[in-house]
């Protein structure tokens, strides 16, 4: 128990927190019918969790250095469990969104400490084995999210996608307290609260502005003032990070072209690969009439192929420069997403399979290599910070992608419905929100199917362009690192060292061969 107990404790938490990124996708229609959630509220149910992870990962890593990694992990898991219980008991969309945010806070504390706990618990070959298992569990969580979510929704109730976290969390906390060593990190004990707060405001307000743009329009006063506030918060963050003694993110790293392009690649990766999937799930269930389980299984070409490619490619492509894996993988993700922009009123789920599989190949190349690329782009002493930053940009890319592609989906639907209803914008939001049944009778079924297909095609087109542009940027701008920096950085990131990023370099640098899909 004491040999592999720490690995089990950490993997339980990792599985839960990453599962909850994707598990809600197939539950959106049922949440709408039960709680009466609007389209924008459903976006926030998906977005707010990833947003909390993105905004708080770096700060949580610094807190772990100050007060101890085990304490932060146990506290985060406990908060995650309580928030999951509250999510399952939610009686309104507002309550569900608020508790998803709290869930994200707990998830950030867990995610920020997973690798450093493993690094401190294992050495040598056991560490390699532990990191490989952790990577496989991370990939399995994302792959199983839609499927497990569909089973729980169909056979029990959507509330069980959250309630199931409670007993698992209890086991994880008990096991952690029993077999994981305590102790404080070697950090200075100072937490950059101002930097954490300003970055949180920037990420949240920017996402809110993009969501509001889908309802009010990009030229509305509300959208303009909201995005202006986001820019102001970003400026405050930059000023704070330039002046504070121990910044969350050393902005001088962005003077390195390779580091900058890897961060942009991480942003583009999660947006392009996963940002359209929530709307695809709504289309599968409300327009094609699929069950939640069937809808979840329809997304397996992406998750399954990426998991296999990551596992096999880790051995066959060992030694290939990260530039080619990231750049080529992002281009494949973009191409696969573009291949999904072919829907019409008569399309079925199988229409998406080829595109999802191609995107899965790209995802299987990018996901394992992304962390190593980030670490190789900085000096070894900054490895931990780079690891935390790349996970932050990934989660932010997913949150912004879901928000931005939602506006594209409703815009395409609105244009398509102009000839079928006197309120095309209202009908588009109703349709995208999973309430197609409310429009049947007043709008022809063929028009509804054409409208949703048009919206998804537009979103897939934009997502595909994001992926291809991101891949081209990596291929053109990323340069090889010198002096074996990658190996030194990876070692630093997983050694359980003191830096906050050592806790957050969830890019699975060592276990990347089996990391699979991780959101």
TrEMBL record:
Topology in the lipid bilayer: Multi-pass membrane protein
TM region positions: 7-28, 48-67, 79-99, 105-122, 129-148, 160-181, 193-211, 217-240, 261-281, 293-312, 324-343, 349-375, 396-414, 458-478
Key words, A-Z: Antibiotic resistance, Cell membrane, Membrane, Transmembrane, Transmembrane helix, Transport
Recorded GO CC terms: plasma membrane
Residue ranges of domain Major facilitator superfamily (MFS) profile in the record: 6-482
Biological processes annotated in GO: response to antibiotic
Gene Ontology molecular functions: transmembrane transporter activity
Gene3D superfamilies for this protein: MFS general substrate transporter like domains, Multidrug resistance protein D
Keyword match Transport: yes
Family matches, as Pfam families: MFS_1
Disordered: annotated segments: 486-519
CDD domains per record: MFS_MMR_MDR_like (cd17321)
Compartments in which it is found: Cell membrane
PROSITE patterns recorded: MFS, SUGAR_TRANSPORT_1
This protein's name: MFS transporter
Lineage of source species: Bacteria, Bacillati, Actinomycetota, Actinomycetes, Kitasatosporales
């Amino acid at each position: 128990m004491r040999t592999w107990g720490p690995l089990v404790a950490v993997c339980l938490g990792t599985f839960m927190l990453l599962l909850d990124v994707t598990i809600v996708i197939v539950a959106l229609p049922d949440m709408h019918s039960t709680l009466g959630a609007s389209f924008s509220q459903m976006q926030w149910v998906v977005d707010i969790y990833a947003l909390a992870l993105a905004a708080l990962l770096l700060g949580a890593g610094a807190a772990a250095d100050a007060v101890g990694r085990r304490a932060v992990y146990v506290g985060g898991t406990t908060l995650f469990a309580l928030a999951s219980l509250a999510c399952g008991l939610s009686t309104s969309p507002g309550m569900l969104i608020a508790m998803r945010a709290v869930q994200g806070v707990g998830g950030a504390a867990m995610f920020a400490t997973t690798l450093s706990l493993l690094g401190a618990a294992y050495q040598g070959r056991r560490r390699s084995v532990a990191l490989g298992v952790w990577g496989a569990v991370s990939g399995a969580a994302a792959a199983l999210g839609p499927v497990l979510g569909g089973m729980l929704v169909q056979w029990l109730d959507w509330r069980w996608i959250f309630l199931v976290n409670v007993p698992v969390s209890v086991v994880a906390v008990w096991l952690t307290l029993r077999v994981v060593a305590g102790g404080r990190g070697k950090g200075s004990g100072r937490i950059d609260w101002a930097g954490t707060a300003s970055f949180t405001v920037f990420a949240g307000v920017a996402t809110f502005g993009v969501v509001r743009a889908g309802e009010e329009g990009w030229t509305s006063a509300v959208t303009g003032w909201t995005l202006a506030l986001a820019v102001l918060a970003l400026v405050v963050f930059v000023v704070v990070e330039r002046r504070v003694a121990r910044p969350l993110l050393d902005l001088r790293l962005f003077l390195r072209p390779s580091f900058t392009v890897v961060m942009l690649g991480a942003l583009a990766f999660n947006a392009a690969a996963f940002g359209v999937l929530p709307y695809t799930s709504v289309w599968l269930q409300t327009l094609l009439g699929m069950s939640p389980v069937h809808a979840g299984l329809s997304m397996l070409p992406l998750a399954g192929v990426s998991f296999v490619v990551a596992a096999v490619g880790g051995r066959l492509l060992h030694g290939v420069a990260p530039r080619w894996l990231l750049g080529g993988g992002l281009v494949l993700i973009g191409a696969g997403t573009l291949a999904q922009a072919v829907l019409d009123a008569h399309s079925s789920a199988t229409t998406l399979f080829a595109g999802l599989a191609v995107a899965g190949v790209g995802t299987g190349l990018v996901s394992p290599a992304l962390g190593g690329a980030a670490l190789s782009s900085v000096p070894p002493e900054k490895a931990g910070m780079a690891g935390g930053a790349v996970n932050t940009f990934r989660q932010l890319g997913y949150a912004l992608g879901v928000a931005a592609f939602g506006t594209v989906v409703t815009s395409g639907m609105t244009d398509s419905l102009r000839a079928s209803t006197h309120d095309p914008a209202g009908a588009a939001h109703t349709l995208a929100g999973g309430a197609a049944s409310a429009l049947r009778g007043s709008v022809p079924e063929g028009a509804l199917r054409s409208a949703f297909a048009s919206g998804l095609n537009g979103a897939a087109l934009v997502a595909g362009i994001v992926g291809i542009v991101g891949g081209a940027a990596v291929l053109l701008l990323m340069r090889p690192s010198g002096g074996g920096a990658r190996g030194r950085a990876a070692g630093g990131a997983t050694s359980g060292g003191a830096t906050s990023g050592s806790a957050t370099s969830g890019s699975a640098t060592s276990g990347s061969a089996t990391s699979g899909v991780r959101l």
